[in-house]
Write a structure and sequence with these properties.
Elements: E1 24-29, E2 32-39, E3 47-53, H1 63-71, E4 75-79, H2 93-106, H3 110-116, E5 118-128, H4 130-141, E6 147-151, H5 157-165, H6 167-178, H7 189-199, H8 209-212, E7 216-222, H9 231-243, E8 249-255, H10 265-279
Parallel strand pairs: 3-4, 3-5, 5-6, 6-7, 7-8
Antiparallel strand pairs: 1-2, 2-4
């Protein structure tokens, strides 16, 4: 039974059993062990699943969202990709996509579903920045993902187009990526740009609209982000591509905030919870 309790400010009832818990998960991907933290709600479930994908390099990991989602009745998983934040292996954009695929498979494993009272038929990917790119790409490749959201999503194909048009822009992206490598291993700004160029427009998020048009999609732009994901470059073209499909189930917003949505975390959380409640409908 749903209640009027506000999950942003209200803990679950103390008599709910089993109680909420936060087990660590270890998930194999490419011979390395991804490190994750699963936020399991109180109560018998089965609980819808939200996988939260952090960006590059992952300074903002959105644990505030995971906690709010748990209080609202969603099991929320946050994890690190290969080559990041102490996880073995090397970082690459391709590894990120492979890792998301492995995590999707892991949360549907029967033993994990049973142990943690999960509902793999109600699963949403939510990503920030590069995580938004990975969320949309992964959902397009996996029709069983029920819903997907990108927050200040970074369209890697923008780097390819900009670099081909202007060598100075290419060098600027190399420098930008080089400046964020401290928590990462096994890569460089040049290697990351070269990988994007090899993928080319296969990584254009606008090309995914047809694959996702029959599923709920939420796009949230950061209106005060003028450097990493300016809305006129990374958000509005994607919105237009989805709206070109008459059967789209798109919801889109632009919040007046920086790339990390630093000053709009409560509003962001409410937008995401509203989206989840309309499409995954937990019992709480």
């Amino acid at each position: 039974m749903t209640t009027s309790l506000d999950p942003l400010v209200t803990d679950p009832a103390e008599d709910l059993r089993p109680p909420a818990s936060t087990p660590a998960l270890a998930i194999d991907s490419g011979g390395e062990t991804l490190l994750g933290l699963l936020h399991i709600p109180a109560g018998p479930g089965p609980h819808p699943i939200v996988i939260i994908l952090h960006g590059f390099p992952g300074n903002e990991r959105n644990f505030d969202l995971a906690q709010a989602f748990r209080r609202a009745g969603y099991a929320a998983l946050v994890f690190h990709y290969r080559g990041s934040w102490g996880v073995g292996g090397s970082w690459s954009w391709g590894h990120v996509l492979e890792d998301v695929g492995r995590v999707l498979a892991a949360v549907r494993d029967r033993s994990l579903v049973a142990a943690h009272r999960l509902d793999p038929d109600r699963l949403c990917l939510i990503g920030h920045s590069l995580g938004g790119f990975a969320a949309l790409m992964s959902a397009a490749a996996d029709p069983s993902v029920a819903a997907v959201a990108a927050v200040a999503g970074f369209d890697l194909s923008v780097v390819d187009r900009a670099g081909r048009a202007d060598p100075a822009a290419r060098e600027a992206y190399i420098d930008m990526f080089d400046g964020e490598l401290l928590p990462l291993r096994g890569t460089s700004g040049k290697a990351l740009v070269t990988e994007i160029e090899a993928a080319g427009q296969a990584w254009a998020l606008t090309g995914l609209a047809a694959s996702l048009t029959n599923r709920p999609v939420l796009l949230v732009g950061a209106g005060e982000d003028h450097i990493v994901t300016p809305v006129e470059v990374h958000h509005r073209p994607l919105v237009d591509a989805y709206l070109a499909h008459p059967e789209n189930r798109l919801e889109h917003h632009v919040l007046p905030a920086d790339h990390a949505l630093s000053g709009q975390r409560v509003q962001l959380t409410r937008l995401l919870l509203s989206f989840l409640d309309r499409h995954l409908r937990p019992v709480r």
